[in-house]
Design goal:
heterodimer; A: alpha+beta; four-stranded mixed sheet; B: two-stranded antiparallel ribbon; 3 helices
């Protein structure tokens, strides 16, 4: 499994904060910030699906990385047929999964989050309840394991499925 | 099979489970775990932008780029 350096994550989250991107950190990176430690190869973020917010995303990524491929991210794709974009920056083995919607299951507006300060960066972090809901509803077996760890740690009610 | 005895439930938990939460140590512990997992990785990721229509496409491509599966065709599209 590819690993991520915490500095990679903080670098991009700081750029999101500076550009006032409307995003929510989800996935394993968010679990770690909630105190459930596990290795991960990426960071997953939901962003609000508007043209203006996609432009903020691109500005944030351009400020974080000198990479012309960022121009390939478009609101036409993200708001249309390609609601999921993976960005693999140069000079790092970290990558970002950027979602406007997760199939027909979830979109930014469905998520609960709160702002926390972590290592000097203000992070828009999904609540445990939202993380659990997303994890138990997605396609990977690892997500089921994660959902159970979240449920156990935060004393959430058992799922019926 | 040998027995191991614990005085509290907390003692039974695996070391990666941060309980009770200790915010002061969290960044240090994440930094340490992620740096260690990074050292164990032995392949290079592609670079750039990749786009997906469905979560299934994204998940399949994740396995491809992380070397967890092999396929002649690639889902989604680059750039």
């Amino acid at each position: 499994m590819k690993g991520v350096f915490l500095e990679d994550l903080l670098h991009v989250l700081r750029a999101f904060e500076e550009q006032e991107l409307e995003y929510v950190l989800i996935g394993a990176a968010a679990m770690n910030l909630h105190g459930i430690l596990r290795a991960t190869e990426d960071a997953d973020v939901f962003i609000r699906g508007t043209e203006d917010n996609v432009e903020r995303l691109k500005r944030a990524l351009r400020s974080a990385y000198d990479d012309p491929s960022i121009d390939e991210i478009s609101s036409e794709d993200l708001l249309g047929d390609y609601p999921s974009v993976r960005y693999l920056p140069p000079d790092t083995e970290f990558f970002l999964d950027i979602l406007v919607r997760l199939g027909e299951f979830a979109r930014y507006e469905d998520l609960e989050w709160r702002e926390v300060e972590f290592e000097g960066v203000r992070v828009r972090l999904a609540t445990p309840e939202t993380l659990h809901w997303l994890k138990k509803g997605t396609v990977r077996p690892q997500d089921r394991v994660d959902a159970e760890a979240i449920r156990w740690k935060f004393d959430l009610p058992p799922t019926n499925d | 099979m040998p027995f191991k005895k614990y005085r509290t439930v907390e003692e039974m938990l695996p070391p990666w489970m941060d309980f009770p939460p200790s915010p002061d140590n969290l960044a240090r512990r994440i930094r340490s775990l992620w740096a260690r997992s990074h050292q164990l990785a032995n392949h290079k990721l592609p670079k750039g932008v990749r786009k997906y229509r469905t979560p299934e496409e994204a998940d399949f491509d994740r396995k491809l780029i992380l070397g967890q599966t092999f396929s002649a065709s690639k889902p989604g599209r680059e750039g």
